[in-house]
């Protein structure tokens, strides 16, 4: 550990807290309201500054870093920076990730002197950014005096860590270097809240009662399971084994239950489920939902909403038909329940009758035109226990969900927020924290165009990320939901772009594949390029999309098109 500064400033205090909660990299875009703060953060030897190309990418890189590290920080300037960074902050909120958004702000004297300032709306009220941040974070604080900084910084960070949501800290340009007290023990910020013993006991009893007399229990896992931390994922495997029942997983929770486990029955995604997950979920007479999120997307336009009474366990509470228990930590609850359940493998026996036979995967000849199926076949062969697979909004969601994850492989998807372009900066942020992983991104042409600049940071940090860019010449998912000329985009020379990002010293490689053999050769180049990203543009026909996308698109479009309900109707 480095020696602590004897005199603390607000900036030092924040830096110390960020380092103490396990942040090793902070993502920044400089601006005159945050420059002194950036100096202070830079001075902390346990933090590495990571510059981003713009604040949207900066916030999404921090979102990806939070997936790998559990918490992240994004530092931007007032308004012009923060309003762009709000997008990644919204993602962190929807995806349950504690991202600490830090914004520089005007000198504390300016508001009372009614000065008009740059990077503002041109009025003398500067409170709007804090008010906007309040809507998209679990705690938003603005420091107006240095002596309040320790209390406000600690409060915001603790709230974010406990709620698994983003927080916002605003620091005026003339306060980052102002003196404040030194930090107290970090446990005051990081110590978890434990379950209320009585509530925990009562919830476990209620669960046993919910299951009693039920013949066909099924466990359904959602994306909030991993976000809960708390050993919840491991506890769930033990509970599943004690129950012996079928375990289905929502698409955004793919990988949160081992896919090679004999009780894994597939991804439950309504009519576009894998295996026979939808049949077994709909056959169940008791559904133990853990961390589930039911949205129009995850229920395929509300067509797959389970219609039996549910048990729903969330990070810090459990709800049953007719009962609710607060302050029950999900990990503790699942462990407690494991000691009470009886073994009943009825749903596994039935699943083994229902499950489809393995399909024969066709391997294309080297000269065959590249297809979506062949791309998937080749990506499947790349996956191993070290892989982190990012799947972008678009057909990549459906193609990615179909892949079989080897044990240990990580799967990242941003299904709740669904921001096209997320995968490039998020994979960059993730790979910085986990350089040992083999990060692969499946991204469409339209999405890539939104945040392409962040590939240049992958080059700068020599990260060997493989980008499989599926070029189907437009916004195909939108074509399937509702087509129009707006779904066509300008084509780029994606492979050549890598040379532009290299500048004079980069190691990125850009390749394009139009045949199966070209893709195979490009994949080999990617695996040998350990010093920078490799982008492989895979050209396919614009109508070559998955069956699942077309089906899902149909039902989501129908849900979008419901006519307005009149009062009383
Ligand atoms: C939009 C989407 O090329 O993928 O496989 O061709 O669909 P596919 P692409 O990356 O195109 C993505 C496109 C335009 N969604 O089909 S999913 C609307 C949208 C969004 N996020 C933002 N703007 C618009 N999801 C930031
Ligand atoms: Mg496309």
Give the biggest beta sheet.
7 strands, mixed
Oligomer: single chain
Number of DSSP strand runs: 21
Small molecules bound in the structure, each named once: ligand DPX, magnesium ion
Overall 3D form: globular
- Rg result: 25 Å
**Uncertain segments of ≥5 residues (pLDDT<50)?**
none
Describe the structure.
This protein is an alpha/beta fold and 569 residues long. It is built from 23 helices and 21 strands. Helix content is 39%, strand content 17%. It has a seven-stranded mixed β-sheet, with helices on both faces. Helix 4 links the parallel strand 4 (72-76) and strand 5 (99-105). Bound molecules: ligand DPX and magnesium ion. Magnesium ion binds next to helix 18.
Quick tags:
single chain; 569 residues; alpha/beta; 6-stranded parallel β-sheet; 39% helix; globular; binds magnesium ion; Pyruvate decarboxylase; decarboxylase; magnesium ion binding
Q: How would you concisely characterize the structure shown here?
A:
The protein is α/β, with parallel strands linked by helices and about 575 residues long. It is built from 23 helices and 21 strands.
Topology at a glance:
Elements: E1 8-9, H1 10-20, E2 25-28, H2 35-43, E3 48-51, H3 55-69, E4 72-76, H4 82-94, E5 99-105, H5 108-112, H6 128-136, E6 139-142, H7 149-163, E7 167-172, E8 179-180, H8 187-190, H9 197-211, E9 217-221, H10 224-227, H11 232-243, E10 246-249, E11 264-267, H12 277-283, E12 286-290, E13 310-313, E14 317-320, E15 323-326, H13 330-338, H14 346-354, H15 372-382, E16 387-391, H16 395-402, E17 410-413, H17 423-433, E18 438-444, H18 445-451, H19 455-460, E19 466-471, H20 476-481, H21 494-502, E20 509-513, H22 516-528, E21 534-539, H23 547-560
Parallel strand pairs: 2-3, 2-4, 4-5, 5-7, 6-7, 9-10, 9-12, 10-11, 12-13, 16-17, 16-18, 18-19, 19-21, 20-21
Antiparallel strand pairs: 1-8, 13-14, 14-15
The protein binds ligand DPX and magnesium ion.
Organism: Triangularia verruculosa
Domain Thiamine pyrophosphate enzyme N-terminal TPP-binding: 9-118
Domain Thiamine pyrophosphate enzyme TPP-binding: 410-538
